[in-house]
Write a structure and sequence with these properties.
mainly alpha; 2 strands
């Protein structure tokens, strides 16, 4: 029974991490940029939900999406677009700067005490009263991830916009010469990434409602590692990597020792196991765990 419980928990967390991996992978696909400020977008959405606790839940969620999309658009227009012709290192440092800026703004505004979100706390209740605990939020996590990933797949493979996004990801300059409105296409990809960040904020706060300025920071780092392990060059492999790292993190947390005296605490066991697996994977499959040995990605989205 404990094994089944652990697998259910791991699948739910893997679904949320897969959504985060898609958001990170979309920006990397079209801009070749790892956005380290992605966690702060989730944090901004979580704070918006906390500040609108007294509102109708639907309006609170709409406000969350509005704030995160506005920040994402501002980030694209003020940071990403002006630096698009610079080196990848410059853009990477810029995302670090944006991440720290948003973190310190939140710290100055709300201090480190944090706020509690009450918008969807009902979803954290278990289904039924059996010994096997399945919470409503876990079901919502899995359904939301499956529907969102399916819709995104259809967008990328069945629409002209998806074709343009893939063309811009493959070769930005050539796509512009062929008539693709690359700037508009990249903006859509970035906004989709922001929408996914807002969705993750809603799902995460339903289960972990206490919001601080470093909210979702550790999760973002773990998902970034998962994207690299899966294969950041392609969206589907990065998504699988995000799911795998989330599943492994939760599964190890259930199977490894949960108690111990310092320094052998549960967190030490968990982080050692997860990142040890990451190092091993990168040594054996540097291109990514879900990328074929003989196939280097020609298509980034």
């Amino acid at each position: 029974m404990n094994t089944i419980q652990t697998l259910i928990d791991a699948t739910a967390l893997g679904a949320v991490y897969a959504l985060m991996a898609v958001g990170i992978g979309l920006v990397f696909g079209v801009l070749r940029l790892v956005n380290f400020a992605y966690g702060q977008l989730i944090m901004a959405g979580a704070y918006t939900l906390a500040l609108t606790n007294g509102w109708n839940p639907a309006l609170s969620i709409v406000a969350c999406f509005g704030v995160v999309l506005a920040l994402t658009l501002l980030m694209e227009l003020v940071v990403f677009r002006p630096l698009r012709g610079t080196s990848p290192e410059t853009m990477l440092i810029a995302t670090f700067a944006v991440s720290l800026l948003l973190y310190y703004i939140a710290t100055l505004k709300f201090t480190t005490l944090g706020k509690t979100v009450g918008t969807l706390t009902g979803l954290n209740h278990p289904i039924g009263h059996g010994t096997l605990i399945v919470r409503w939020v876990w079901v919502v996590d899995i359904i939301a991830a499956a529907c969102t990933l399916g819709a995104l797949l259809l967008l990328l493979t069945r629409t002209d916009l998806g074709l343009h996004m893939r063309a811009a990801a493959s070769d930005f300059r050539t796509a512009r010469l062929l008539g693709v409105r690359a700037n508009s296409t990249i903006m859509v990809a970035v906004l989709l990434s922001g929408a996914l960040a807002a969705l993750v904020a809603v799902l995460m706060t339903a289960e972990t409602p206490y919001v601080t300025p470093d909210y979702a920071l550790r999760d973002t780092i773990i998902v970034l590692v998962g994207c690299v392990v899966g294969g950041l060059e392609r969206l589907w492999s990065a998504t699988l990597g995000g799911f795998a790292i989330g599943f492994a993190t939760q599964a190890f947390g259930g199977f490894l020792p949960s108690t111990g005296s310092w320094p052998f605490t549960s967190g030490v066991y968990l982080d050692s196991a997860v990142f040890g697996l990451v190092v091993l994977t990168l040594l054996l499959r540097p291109d990514g765990l879900f990328v074929g040995r003989r196939h280097r990605a020609m298509e980034r989205v």
